[in-house]
Q: What sequence folds into this?
């Protein structure tokens, strides 16, 4: 068989063409197919202009950089820490303080260290991708500004006690309003104050004050408990006395009405037979006066009813 240099050249050219074609196919497929995870959404641009958003799954786009996709995590709740950082070394986390973020001035001109976190979720992938360049820095600046403002409006003991939840709620509202104004495309779902402590130099004094306030609250609660126990008892006693008085009043009124009715009936009989009625009333009065006496004989002053044969020894 004769060696033909032309056939060798054609064969090499054909192989080179196939290799180039394969590379082109790989580039074509690599730049036109993309996969979006279940927790993500993809923002698609064509020549840098937004054309749509794609959900999870396998998608196609124009190759060679004509279309570009920017995947955004829209399901995971993301967290930002302020005043401290969590550093993981091995299996146990360690914490480093960030005094520049945590140190604040309160409304009563005290200094307090506040550590907090915010949790947020991306709700508008398009706005998140295009509207703000320094997204993380913007989130941190807005959050620090909101918490500093709320802490600066309150006394230190309120911040450490009863106003903690109010600061969290108001902070979340202020942050969300600001982020909507900026068009950042996120929604803050929680603001949590982690540690609120006075500076280390005066911490013991503040702990004593806090303990005193707790004792005050405990004693107040005990006083309210005693009050709540005694007041119903006193009210019950009052009701009992009032009911007894009302019953006595009713009984006296009824008795007086009965006496009036009896007097009226006697008066009617007296008008009909004055002598007989007068004598009957006299006998009734005498019987009433001496009803409890025993061994007594009643005689009149003239001895007209005295029995001479009465046995005096039988008394």
A:
């Amino acid at each position: 068989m004769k060696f033909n240099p032309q056939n060798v050249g054609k064969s090499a050219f054909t192989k080179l063409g196939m290799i180039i074609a394969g590379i082109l196919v790989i580039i074509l497929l690599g730049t036109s197919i993309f996969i979006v995870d279940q927790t993500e959404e993809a923002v698609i641009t064509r020549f840098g202009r937004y054309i749509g958003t794609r959900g999870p799954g396998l998608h196609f786009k124009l190759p060679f950089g004509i279309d570009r996709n920017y995947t955004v995590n829209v399901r995971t709740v993301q967290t930002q820490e302020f005043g401290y950082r969590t550093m993981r070394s091995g299996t146990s986390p360690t914490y480093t303080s960030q005094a520049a973020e945590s140190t604040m001035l309160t409304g009563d001109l005290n200094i307090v260290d506040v550590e907090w976190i915010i949790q947020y979720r991306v709700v508008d992938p398009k706005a998140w991708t295009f509207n703000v360049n320094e997204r993380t820095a913007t989130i941190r600046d807005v959050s620090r500004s909101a918490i500093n403002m709320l802490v600066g409006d309150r006394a230190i003991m309120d911040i450490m006690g009863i106003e903690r939840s109010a600061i969290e709620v108001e902070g979340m509202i202020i942050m969300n309003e600001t982020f909507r104004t900026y068009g950042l495309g996120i929604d803050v779902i929680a603001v949590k104050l982690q540690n609120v402590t006075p500076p280390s130099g005066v911490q013991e004094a503040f702990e004593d004050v806090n303990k005193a306030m707790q004792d005050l609250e405990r004693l107040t609660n005990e006083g309210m408990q005693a009050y709540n126990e005694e007041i119903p008892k006193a009210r019950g006693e009052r009701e009992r006395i009032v009911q007894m008085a009302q019953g006595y009043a009713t009984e006296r009124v009824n008795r007086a009405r009965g006496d009036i009715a009896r007097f009226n009936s006697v008066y009617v009989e007296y008008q009909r037979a004055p002598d007989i009625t007068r004598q009957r009333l006299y006998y009734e009065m005498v019987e009433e006066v001496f009803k409890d006496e025993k061994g007594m004989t009643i005689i009149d002053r003239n001895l007209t009813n005295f029995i001479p044969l009465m046995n005096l020894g039988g008394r």
Observations:
- Residues 203-272 form the longest helix (70 residues).
- The helical segments are 5-32, 99-102, 125-130, 135-152, 156-160, 164-182, 203-272, 274-289.
- Residues 78-198 form a domain with the Tetrahydropterin Synthase; Chain A fold (CATH 3.30.479.30).
- The chain has three domains: 15-73, 78-198, 218-291.
